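User: Sequence in, structure out. Go.
Assistant: Echoing your sequence, followed by the structure tokens.
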Amino acid sequence: MDLGLEPPSETTEPHPRAGITEVYLLLLGYTAECFIKARLTRKLLRGLKGHKFDAEVLPQKLKSHKLRRLCEDAGIRLLPREDRVLGLLEEAVKWRGRYPVPGLAANLKATWLSETDLRVAKSFLQRLMPRPAEA
């Protein structure tokens, strides 16, 4: 049974993945969202006197799950191969990871994911991780 965690195959072509792939992408997506929002928060705070947000009102830019837009707002440039993967992560964060079985049968589709996609997602997250000097 394919759980979505098998070692890389000889092909890097996308193929449908079954099992826990949606949840795995959801967790990767949430991780990416947290790292991106941390950078965006740092950028937004630099423009505020006293480096503080109003505790009751967060900036609107932080209230989104649109990973591409968050990257743009945070000044994170995407590598060409990261755009497709970010789309997969964004879709998982928005709904497919939380609701893997949609309400309409027409919306039930497999996630087309290659081993290369997984490597790109992991390298993207590593690129976003704070370095000890930044912490």
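User: And one key feature?
Assistant: The radius of gyration is 17 Å.
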